[in-house]
Amino acid sequence: MKLKIHTQILIAILVGVVVGVVLNGHIERAHVAGERLARADVVCKYAAGVKLIGDLFIRLLKMIIVPLIMASMVTGVVSIGNVRSLGRIGLRTFAYYLATTLLAVAVGLVLVNVIAPGAGVEMPASQAEAQESTRQPPTAGSIITDIVPENIVGAMAQSKFLSVIFFSLLLGVALSTVGQKARPLIELFDALNSVMLKITGWIMHLAPFGVCALMAYIVGTLGIDVIKDLAKYMATVGLGLGIHACITLPILLLVFARYWPLRFFRHVFSAVATAFSTASSAATLPITMDCLEENAGVSNKITSFVIPLGATVNMDGTALYEAVAAMFIAQAYGIEMTLVQQIVIMLTATLASIGAAAIPSAGLFTMMIVLNAVDLPLEGLAMIWAVDRLLDMCRTAVNVWGDSCGTAIVAKLEGEKLT
Prior knowledge:
The chain is about 80% helix and about 0% strand. The chain is mainly alpha-helical. The model is unreliable at about 125-140 (pLDDT under 50). The chain has one domain (about 5-415): Sodium:dicarboxylate symporter (Proton glutamate symport protein). The chain starts with a helix and ends in a 6-residue tail after the last helix. The protein has helices spanning about 5-35, 40-80, 85-115, 130, 140-145, 150-155, 160-180, 185-220, 230-255, 260-280, 280-295, 300-315, 315-330, 340-355, 360-375, 380-385, 390-415.
């Protein structure tokens, strides 16, 4: 009997963890035995093959993101037909995204104040120079201006998804209003969308192998020593993500979509699991759309609008993480944060998450915006950088789960019958 794809991915995650533990043992023994070899050299020697498989899987997913977003959004907007309907769907989508992000940040702030994970933690400033990225954080102005591309081809090449989405929406609306003359171009995008979905299906068959390799590499190279001092911080973030994913979002799904959460989770498990292993909601986008359309029965016109937009602007997990991380850094440095400052963190984390690229560890870069907003030392990023990958996997899974729930809610409000 052939196992369903989500079962295959779950098995792949477990196998990847086991392989990673074995790999980590080899790396540690080799590092101790060969004192002249740096740990990075040992990691490359033992984990290169595993990393290659995982990297190829991610590259396959990234390869189809831009054409899939463009084709699916253009056909989705055209299929809606009425521009007024598009406005209604857009309003409902943005209302959901804003509400859930604010709820997620609020949960994070309550937990970090109650648990106080940063109390008593030493933040070594000497690590900042070695760990801090040279990449400049995006500003509010750059986030807004990036929506309108100077060159759409350049935006595609640089994976600026907000720009691609804006252009695709504009093109779809234009095609809807031109009439019969636009029919050949509409058919072209419809055909392109069908082809991209077919390629997505092929890549889905490779998902268990890619997920297994990614998990093996992460577990094999991360180790556990570095996370011991940050266990309370990680637990706070994990608890916040768990509350948002297991309580807040299911309640919204049950109330507004009349959809039993456990059943819906089974439908989108492949997407959530892939998001967890890749730590990229953009790379997971094709799988998310496939799960919602094939398993949950959401129409393409809804998924093609809500999901690409959500993968770009709806980062519930990232916003929650940024709020907790900012407060953790403040507590570790002994800086008292007033209620007003925490409200600033809440609003800034919400806005910064919108500008976070849907790629691994993007939240670390937008964290700079949050820290600057309340004058917290950027050196604090050095400490949390060590455990970011694991938390990134968790928050990305929550991001994709939130996008999926939002799509089902919008579809139900639009009168669609879900399976």
